[in-house]
Amino acid sequence: MPVLLITRSSSVHEAVVPLCAAAGIAAEVCADPDLSLATWREADLVLVGADLAGPVGGLAPPRRPGVHVVGAPPDDSAFRHAVTLGADSVVDLPDGAAWLSGALADVGERGSPGRLVGVVGGTGGAGATTLACALAQWHARRGPTLLVDGDPLGPGVDRLLGMEDLPGVRWEALAETSGRLGAGALREGVPRRDHLGVLTWSGLRRRLDVPTVRRVLPAGVRGHGLVVVDLARQGGAGIVELADRCDDLLVVTPATVPGLAATARLVADLGRAGRAGLVVRPGGLGDADAERVTGLPVVAAVADQRGLAAALDRGLGPLAGRGPLARAVRDLLADAA
Known about the structure:
The chain is of the alpha/beta class. It starts with a strand and ends with a helix. Strands 8-9-7-10-6-11-12-13 form an eight-stranded mixed β-sheet, sandwiched between helices. A five-stranded parallel β-sheet has the order 2-1-3-4-5, sandwiched between helices. The protein has two domains: 3-105, Response regulator (Rossmann fold, 3-Layer(aba) Sandwich); 115-336, P-loop containing nucleotide triphosphate hydrolases (Rossmann fold, 3-Layer(aba) Sandwich). The protein is 40% helix and 19% strand. The mean pLDDT is 90. The radius of gyration is 23 Å and the shape is elongated.
């Protein structure tokens, strides 16, 4: 029983039940507050009509996520009852129907959010996009994965994976929408091959719309076990915000004096000490030097891989064969888990 609707109001019933039917979700309507407690815990989503929010709150049901008060334009009493119930929100109907449709679209999705991993190059040409693609390819063998292209000046993650011709929504289309984005809608809408979905641009003129990203990333982690974001090195406060949203941030850098110097400046701007780590590429300096200069721990070292450039040119992705990159991403994802 995915949705429990507690109300005696015909207007609330007529507003909510059709939305459940449109989402293909079963709903149980209960007009007796006392009887509602029997299925209070089991429902994926609990919608309490404003007309019964007071009586239901008086029963002191156990606190749980996914409770919303729905009904007429809210007043002070609706908010007081919502606090008593521990509700997540108060939704005005019918004005809030679009938001409620998005919430219903997520019913039955993952019980816990996926992990959000950001990858950024400490200097140009460090191989951040390649690592992001490799992480996504590896995890997609095991479950739903979303690779987000957050670098407008990058090559395009879809091109490296040979997915540029697959149908699906791109950044341009999402930027033209508004409101809550459902996890299922995003997962099914982006270009996808098996368990791997990608979100990038469709043309040469690219601009990362940060408000759209704020809607996309929460939907992505609700519908995927792993979301990998290929971040741009430059982008101002927007990139800093995106990096801060990541559970883990991997900074790719060559172990060279110029590379580490540039990486140190990037790390200072991001301010992510404690949740960021270095992925070191070959160079003349050691891990201790890299950690001393940047202030970040080395979490992986990736040697040069024979045939990698040819595999990317052919759209096979970085994990077309075995090599040091495959071993590195395996260990990185195991540590993140």
